[in-house]
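Batch job 17 of 40 flagged for manual review because the log was empty.
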Amino acid sequence: METEKAVVVDPHHNGMAVTSLVLGIVGFVIGIIPIIGWFFMPAWILAIIFGAVGIRQNQSKGMSYTGLILGIVTFVYKFGFWLLVAAGA
């Protein structure tokens, strides 16, 4: 007699967390390039948004926080640099 095997599907998805992490990494790596980095500003902003949404939806906290932090760090780095340049430092 053959037994049937049941497949259990995990309904918990980490789409927002993974998206935040990927956009955070790409935005950070490309963001440190002087001129090209500004074209990736939507990636920084979306990494921050998706990270916050991922945290609220109880998705993978590590990936969500990492994407959120990378987006914020890149945002602060790019705008902080130009604030220092404008101040004449």
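Reviewer: the log was empty due to a logging misconfiguration, but the result itself is present. The chain has a mean pLDDT of 88. Unflagging and moving on to job 18.
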